[in-house]
Amino acid sequence: MLTYYLKLFVFLAVLGSCQHFLQKMPMNKSSDYPPQKKLFYKNIYEGVSLDSNKSVDMWLNYFTGSGRKYMKIYLERSSRYIPVMKNVLRENNLPEELVYVSLIESGFSPKALSHANAVGYWQFIYGTGKRYGLRIDGFVDERKDPILSTQAAAKYFKDLYSLFGSWHLALAAYNSGEYRVNRAVLRHYNRDFWHLSSKKALPRETRNYVPKLIAAIRIAQNPDSYGFYNLDFEPAIKYEKIQIKKPVSLFKLANNLGVSKEEMKRLNPMYKGEYVPVYSANSFIRVPIGMQNQALAQLEKSFMPKPKYKYHYHYWYRVRKGDSLYKIARRHKTTVRKLRRANNMRARASFLRIGQKLKIPSRKLVASKNPSSNRNLASLNKEFHTVQKGQSLSLIAKLYGIKLNALKDLNDIQGAPIIHPGQKLRLKKPQSKVNLNTYHVVRKGETLIEIAKKYNTPLPHLMKENSLHLKSILLTGKRLIIPR
Hints:
The protein contains 20 helices and 12 strands. By secondary structure, the chain is mainly alpha-helical.
């Protein structure tokens, strides 16, 4: 315990000295990136300096040229969220220009998903979202909520600014991480973003991030000057909040209110499906303006018990002999591009090794972590379970209320459990007086035809009993049912 507190004291002391060192460090100007106008930050109320240089001009040319169609979409969509997001920034005494970080991160879309699994308006990864108080589970993802995610982003901005004392460096750290920017500052003994960019002390994406944001801010603040005329701005989001004490169905409530399901989802994008859970006394639903009292009266009719399934974004697949990205993508009804993005693979780097684990992107439903629900879902009299795509051994054990080790013993599984869709797993010990089947454990090099001949049983019966076909891969150690 004494060692723990000693380490904690040393960590805090080092963090404090780093912040003091960064604030005292000189702000040198770069000859390669000469800003025309420079603002010095005295406190958190200072605005973001909109410098002019060749990097900013490059992004202005992009947004008014080949990227115009995307900028037009983002600008038209921005009017829906900017008012509520700016309110959050004002409450935190932050520059309003920071709202346009959401424009270049996600285009103000709650559905935005990056190759690093960053989600929502502000593109939080799972760890950062949890660190700043966002709830992320099988039913809720608050990274997709415009208000809650902006509150988390505001806290993150404050922390970054307090560390670097410069909005340019704080924004660079928002893109690539505070540790990487801090290393660059300490290595070059300089706190000027443009100088660090000229020395290529930051990744290319980060060197482009700040000028890209400055260009986006300039266009968004004065679109007419850059040729964006007659924009069809979306109306600002308006809603009323109602507190809920019991879980409800978002779609039932929409139907009871005479509102479309799409509109209710747009007001409540943080809920992954129709189920709205209750985690605390502050749980709420947003409804259209003027429907607060009507919605409160319909809550009882819109009650929904906890679903037996929940959403998840991916499941795991273990590469086998002969697999390729194309074959895996086709088998799991996805695309090679999505597979590469989910596994951080480069376009030309498609080398796979046997036994490698791949993330398979999915919006598939998996069993909820509610033991009672799972037991109701699974028949207690069931003797076998056929493995479905995306299921793991631990998930099946929870589904039937069986201990994982017991399930392994029943199926003679040892070491790392590798199961595949279509495989049959035993759930109960066989009763000797009614058990007419025998079993065979596959040995290395055996084929279905050899096993069928060995037990003098028709090959079609053997395949049907074990949910196999002629092209099925027999894994060494797999237990086959030999029909009598």
